[in-house]
Amino acid sequence: MQNIKDLTLQDIGQRLTSLGEKPYKALQIFVWAFNKGISSFDDMTDLPKGLRERLKENFYISQPKIIATEKSKDGTKKLLLELEDKNCIECVLIPEEDRLTLCISSQVGCPLDCGFCMTGRGGFVRNLKLSEIIDQVFAAKTLLPADQKITNLVIMGMGEPLLNYKEVVKFLNIATHQKGLGFAPKRVTVSTAGIAPMIERLGKEIKVNLAVSLNATTDDVRNRLMPINKKYPLKILLDACKKYSAVRNRHITFEYILMQGMNDSIEDAKRLVKLLKGIRCKINLIPFNPLPNTKFKRPSDNALSIFQKMLLDSNYVAIIRASKGEDISAACGQLKGKLKR
Ligand code: SF4
């Protein structure tokens, strides 16, 4: 049996045809599964009973299984979800003044092993399926009161989304489909550690926001922090970013986690100004969240302000982003697929 939530609108149409059913019914099924988030084919009340029975014989509808939640003192909520094969993933609801963002995972674990990240330390298990990505949204919705809704999605949780490209793009299409999850593309962001060829492809294929986790201004430092830089060094990565922003004529957000003595000097700030020249972008400066057994340290407030000022003086938009949910390990780079029980 196949999970209906692993099928795109087009896939549902094809499956209906192969079952001898009318393919135009696909949109109704799509709306029930992805917009209304129903749990039973019996709830698809505008479909003929016979078709509902055929669907039941061939498909099932997954329901997310939340096995634990934790709430931070700043209101951030972390959810631990158990998948059908018993692997676990996390997603995080982040309330801010004017928005409620859901940070979604795209893989179980992550193969990229960034030096500042707990997810990377745990290694890679597997890619998530479309249903497992989408069920994070439905899981988070169950925690919200009726008058509150998720306003933004970021694929910035466990895993590197551009290494699970096919399923992530299917998800993005459903997330931004008016009859799917119905998010405006400008409210959906994919965050990558720098899979350069896939950045260019994403730019051509879909219109959502892109965030790039940069974190260094020389290949030497970036190789140490993010081993993926050995495959796609800064020049290749930033060329891909230039092509992406030219196609979409949109801003890229560069995430820059500052670590004391590693990447927080005035020289770094000067190099960053040069590196990003010609790319329409803004820069999020994130002071490092100390992790257990880490050699990296949080920068001083003074170093952070000097770094920001250098960027502002060079006419970049540079915002210091306080990490949310640090006390429950829900902040950037802290997701491990386990909550404190
Ligand atoms: S920072 Fe992102 S890409 Fe790097 S190891 Fe962690 S989850 Fe993977």
Walk me through the structure.
By secondary structure, the chain is an alpha/beta fold. The protein folds into two domains: 2-60, DNA polymerase, domain 1; 66-328, Aldolase class I (TIM Barrel, Alpha-Beta Barrel), CATH 3.20.20.70. The protein is built from twelve helices and 14 strands. It has helices at residues 9-18, 26-36, 49-58, 118-121, 130-142, 165-175, 196-205, 219-225, 228-231, 234-248, 266-275, 301-313; strands at 2-3, 59-60, 66-71, 77-82, 88-96, 99-104, 107-109, 124-127, 152-155, 188-192, 209-213, 252-258, 281-287, 317-320. The strands form three sheets. It has a ten-stranded mixed beta sheet with strand order 3-4-5-6-9-10-11-12-13-14, with helices on one face. Strands 1-2 form a two-stranded parallel sheet. It has a two-stranded antiparallel ribbon with strand order 7-8. Strand 3 and strand 4 (77-82) form a beta hairpin. The longest helix has 15 residues, at 234-248. It is globular and about 70 Å long. The protein starts with a strand and ends in a 21-residue tail after the last strand. The mean pLDDT is 93. Iron/sulfur cluster binds next to helix 4.
Keyword list:
341 residues; globular; binds iron/sulfur cluster; DNA polymerase, domain 1; alpha/beta; TIM Barrel
Radius of gyration: 21 Å
The gross shape turns out to be globular
Briefly, what CATH class of the largest domain? Alpha Beta
Amino- and carboxy-terminal Cα gap = 34 Å
Order of helices and strands: EHHHEEEEEEHEHEHEHEHHHEHEHE
Total number of domains: 2
Helix content: 25-40%
Strand order of the largest sheet: 3-4-5-6-9-10-11-12-13-14
The name of the CATH superfamily of the largest domain reads Aldolase class I
Class by alpha and beta content: alpha/beta
The small-molecule ligands in this entry are:
iron/sulfur cluster
Q: Can you summarize the main beta sheet?
A: 10 strands, mixed
Number of E strands? 14
Q: Within the CATH hierarchy, at the fold level, what is the topology of the largest domain? A: TIM Barrel
- Averaging pLDDT over every residue, what do you get? 93
Unreliable parts: none
- Beta content comes to 15-25%
